[in-house]
Every structure is written in structure tokens, then in C-alpha cells.
């Protein structure tokens, strides 16, 4: 299905940005056509490179392939947006064909239609013969890719097509350039106060650093992890949580990139739960669960720990991602929460926001999630609600017995696929609990 969509998208772009703006057989048309084919091929190789040629090939083709994916997407967006003004401009051009000397505009349009019908080949059309009073011959433009009309009309339509293509190209490149700068820049620090009804006042002010969707992979380096660790340590958090989608590859490929996690600092420890991408890793998620544990970050696999602060206690629980179900390693909230003191507040780490429905049914006070990237590239933020209840930020889900479960969804500190973020800057969150 995806290859068909990609082929159709490229053909549509060729029709609008190449065919309608160039002459048949011209050098610009040939160059632009083959460039479009080449970019499409590189993107296809990027998609299958890791499975066919290994991580080495993937690192080579990832940058051009994923950048073209982003550019192609925004070319599509801008081209679709331009369809209506382009159509209106084309209509105005057809109506605005200039009349000849002593000729009314109505007669000119009628004559143009007759000439077009009589001379579809585009050769010279002579009106009225060669005797005295014969009208001068009128040259009709070649058929080209446009309906046969007088030369000035064809030139104006070409001008409209090229103007639209220029706007589309400039808009797409500017958007991707801006988005790349956002994706590769420092994450935004979001400081979010959250009030919990059951929180012991002695625990008020407890700080939880939340980071998700770091996505170590072929486009990131060790510096990506070092920057995130440095920024988290600067927050002086009491607890650090990594809420899934840490990696896009195996420990053998990405282990050195994850090593800086060993330097995370917090008063009560750092904790990790799996995301869907850990289960996409060849060989399964267990290799990363073991690796993260060896770096001093404790995995919470359908389990909980007690956070004791100023004489008060809070339960911090974590569940596996939903994608672990196919391998018998899915979420088990009953196991994570079973046997605890129900009078204590509980904060749940769950990668996908959709898990909040079950969390609310089990009396969870606060769920911390990621997964959505905040949409990463607008207008995908409008599509996320089809799958997840929250795109980004803090929200509430009512509980059947009264009250509500709060859920905070971080936009994530990395990116997946294209190194581009538009309307959803990367984020590290500092949750401050208040009674």
C-alpha cells in the first residue's frame, strides 16, 4: 500500500511541478523528471536499507532519503493548498485574452475557439483567403500539454503554473529548513505543575523529569544523548523517567550512543519503560531492557517502586508498551498495581496515551506518556487524535467512581524518520507535584 501511495504522490508532483511548467522534450523537463525519480529511489532505499544492507547502508542513505520524504510531504501539502488559487488564476487568464485591433473581446474568444477547432495541430491558420482584405494569419501555439489556444493565453497559463510551482517549492523548502533546525536544536524545557488530590503535603514540590522518544538511530550521534543528559541533570530532578522509544536499532549498533545515560543524576533514581520501537528492534526489546539496566536506569516492567520523600510515600509504576502483546510481553496494570496501599497516590509510566483509559479504571492519579511527538510535522497533529486521546500537554480522564486521572503527554526529545519538527518542538518536561 505504501509503495503505491509514494508512486502516486511523485506522479502528482511531476504533473503539477514539472509537466505543467516545462515544454515537452526540453532540458529542464528531462532534468527535473530524472531528479524526481532519483530522489524517490533514494527514499525507497532508505526505507528498506536497514533490512537489506544493514546499519551501515542505512546511515549513508538516511539523511538524503528522510529529508526528501519531508520535502515531498510539504510539496504535496503546498501543492494541494495551491490548487484553488491556481484554478482561479487559470480561469482569469482564459477570460483575459487580449482582443486584436478593431476586434471585440467576445469575437476574439469565439475566433480563438474556431481556430483551435480547425487547426488542432498548431499550424498556421489563415482566415478568409489571400485576396484583398484578407486578415493576417494568426499563429496558434503548439498543442504542448495545454488545450490549444492563442499564444498569449498559453504563455500566461505557463506563467501561472510556474508561479504556483515557485510558491510551492519555496514554501516547502522554507518549512523543512525551519523544521530541521527545530528538530536538531535543544529541546524546550516545559515546567508543568500538577496537583494531586491524594498527595501528602510533605511531598509537595517533588520534581519528576520526563523524557520520551529520544529515538537513537542512524541520524543521531552520541552528542544527542549527551545533550539530553546534560539538560536533565541541570533540572536537579528528584526522579528521572524515560517513557519509551529510546532507540531505533540494536544494542550492537546503538549501544555507544546510549552510554551517556549512565551519567543521569537524580535523588531517587532513573526509570525506564518500553515503547513500541523497542519491540521493533531485531532480536526484541529484552536486549535494551538489559542494556538500560546496566547503565543504572531501572526498567519498570509491569511493576512499581516506592518513592519516599520527606516522610511521605508515592508509588511510581511502569507498564510495558502495547506492542509487547504479540510477544507475550504486553502491559499488565493489575500486576503493576496489585497489593499496594490504595490510599497512596500513584504515578504511572506508560508509553502510549491511549493506555490512560485503563489507568483511570484502576485509580491512577497521573499518567506520564509520550509516543505522539506532538504530531512532529504539522498537520499530522490533526491526525493523532484518530488514535490517541491526547496529542500533547496535560489532560484529564474522568474516573467511574468520581475524580479524574490526569495524563501528561510529552512531545519527545528526538524525532522519528525525517529530522524535521514543525509546530511540535522537542521537549524535556519537569513535572512538579503539588498537594
TrEMBL record:
| One Pfam assignment | Metallophos
Q: Which domain of life is it from?
A: Bacteria
Residue ranges spanning the membrane: these are 31-53, 65-85
Keyword Disulfide bond included in the entry's annotation? no
- Domain annotation Calcineurin-like phosphoesterase: ranges: 206-374
Q: Which InterPro entries match?
A: Calcineurin-like_PHP, Metallo-depent_PP-like, Metallophosphoesterase_sf
- Cofactor(s) of this protein: a divalent metal cation
**GO cellular component terms attached to this protein's record:** membrane
Official protein name in the record: Metallophosphoesterase
Natural source organism: Microbispora oryzae
